[in-house]
Design goal:
CATH topology: Carbamate kinase
Distance between the termini: 20 Å
Largest sheet: 8 strands, mixed
Oligomer: single chain
CATH superfamily: Acetylglutamate kinase-like
Strand order of the largest sheet: 3-6-2-1-9-11-12-10
Number of domains: 1
Length: about 240
């Protein structure tokens, strides 16, 4: 099986989600079972983006538990939308969220750490369907409080699930065809890299807008989980990151 991670850009509208659905269909055909991790729809300014939800009231600055609860809603909305669209096309799937997903967290609200993943429910559901959708960026502590994993935390969700479920690899779908030698928005002379070691990849993440969350990449290196970064709308091969 594999993990597929779709970010906010990939989820932002129906046309982009069609690309997501096509990748999901191909993933099921090739690997049999997949777990899909989603980020919130769009970016700041879009109605269901995380930053948009956090700006609904300034009172969230004084209530960190409530802030994490509202921050988690963007991924729940994205998971529900994608699930409904898959079902509409005849692709059986199941959304697992909160305690169902089995992701146990601890630490500080807004910057929690994953301390364990109980995969019992996920594995049980995968006996009945080939596709499970899990909202990224969040888990629950021992007291049932929703906790978020820091900016870009859905990437960490995907890598941690890959380890816990012993997936073949984790696929990240981006608005670029893979890892580039430079930021396409800033430079014109750049190339796509076909393969990287984890150490080489980590060096490229030391920037303002890393292609995936640094914590997620560090976790992948620690657990030797191969990563495949590819374009959401591209048919060319992406970039493999491995030991």
């Amino acid at each position: 099986m594999i993990i597929q991670k779709f970010g906010g850009v990939a989820m932002q509208n129906e046309q982009m989600r069609t690309y997501c659905i096509n990748h999901i269909k191909k993933g099921i055909e090739q690997y049999g079972k997949i777990v899909v991790v989603v980020s919130a729809i769009g970016r700041f300014g879009d109605p269901y983006a995380t930053d948009s939800l956090l700006n609904l009231t300034t009172a969230f600055t004084s209530d960190k538990a409530a802030r994490d609860l509202i921050a988690s809603c963007g991924e729940l909305i994205a998971a529900s939308v994608l699930s409904a669209e898959l079902t509409h096309l005849g692709i059986l799937n199941k959304v697992l969220h909160g305690q169902q997903a089995g992701i146990l967290t601890s630490g500080q609200f807004g910057d929690a750490s994953i301390i364990d993943i109980d995969t019992t429910t996920i594995r049980h559901v995968l006996n009945d369907t080939n596709c499970v959708i899990i909202p990224g960026f969040q888990g629950m502590d021992h007291y049932g409080n929703v906790m978020t994993l820091g900016r870009g935390g859905s990437d960490l969700t995907a890598v941690a699930l890959g380890e816990a479920l012993q997936a073949s690899h984790v696929e990240f779908f981006k608005d670029v065809p893979g890892v580039m030698t430079g930021d396409p928005a800033l430079v014109s002379n750049y190339q796509k890299l076909d393969t990287l070691t984890f150490d080489q990849f980590l060096q490229l993440l030391q920037c303002d807008k890393p292609i995936i969350q640094l914590r997620a990449a560090l976790h992948a290196k620690k657990t030797t989980m191969p990563l495949y970064i590819r374009g959401i709308a591209s048919i060319e091969t992406g970039t493999w990151i491995s030991p």
